[in-house]
Amino acid sequence: MKVLKKLLIVVGVVSLTSCNQQPNVAPQEPVDSSAIVIENIMTRVSVRQFTSEPIAKTDLQVILKAGLQAPSAMNAQDWQVRIVTNQEMLNTLSGFMLKTEMGKGMAERLGGKNAFANAPAVAFVAAETGDKATAYNREDTALLSENILLTAHALGLGATYQAAPARMINDSAEAKDYLKAAFGFPDNAELINIIIMGHPAENPAVKDRDQSKGRIIE
Ligand SMILES: Cc1cc2nc3c(=O)[nH]c(=O)nc-3n(C[C@H](O)[C@H](O)[C@H](O)COP(=O)(O)O)c2cc1C
């Protein structure tokens, strides 16, 4: 199922970018892609432990493109996202974060890992502020983030949305300065969340949801 899903995603992204080339492949059985999409949503789970295997660049490109395909209020696209795989940069930023009040308590629990669980890739998601941003810039980043989570899962990767590390970075002048300088965020970018990503080294169960919180009214 995972291989099929991955194939569908890569084929989908490639066909979005090159419409006029017909691949020379034999006709295949029709695939119920809606079932695959729904299964992907229902089986996504936060993964916080990763192997050291890097994520393929082609997968990162698909993840980034899918993130940027999210809807945004008035199509303002008032976000900035950086997917960082450079472990030296991530370790430097982590060092600043672990010096904050929140970070000091966290250092012990990390067991020698950096503030990003030594994830092979970390997405930094920021909302643009100022004149060109809408009042819904945070909502827009949330939708972008969900696209990243679901795409990572579809590609067989694990990922977790995390707000606390963004708060740690925003609380530290040196972490904030480093983030902007090293990752090229503009001055009007406000970091909202990060997403840690990698090949899963754990297999958490999907958590139940309270179905009474949603209703269909006819
Ligand atoms: C707004 C928001 C903030 C979150 N912040 C963190 C965080 O700082 N650290 C973390 O490990 N997980 C964080 N999570 C992940 C949630 O803990 C997780 O999504 C939730 O427990 C449901 O589990 P599931 O994603 O496996 O379904 C956050 C999720 C959301 C939506």
Features:
4-stranded antiparallel β-sheet; NADH Oxidase; single chain; alpha+beta; 218 residues
How far the N terminus sits from the C terminus, by CA atoms, comes to 35 Å
What ranges have pLDDT less than 50 throughout 5 or more consecutive residues?
A: 14-22
Radius of gyration: 19 Å
- CATH architecture classification: 3-Layer(aba) Sandwich
How many individual domains? 1
CATH class: Alpha Beta
Shape: globular
Strand order of the largest sheet: 1-2-4-3
Can you offer a commentary on this structure?
The protein has 218 residues and is of the alpha+beta class. It has helices at 2-17, 33-43, 57-68, 87-97, 101-109, 137-154, 164-170, 173-183, and strands at residues 79-84, 121-128, 158-162, 189-198. The chain has a single domain, classed as NADH Oxidase (3-Layer(aba) Sandwich), CATH 3.40.109.10. It is built from eight helices and four strands; from the N terminus they run αααβααβαβααβ. A four-stranded antiparallel sheet has the order 1-2-4-3, sandwiched between helices.
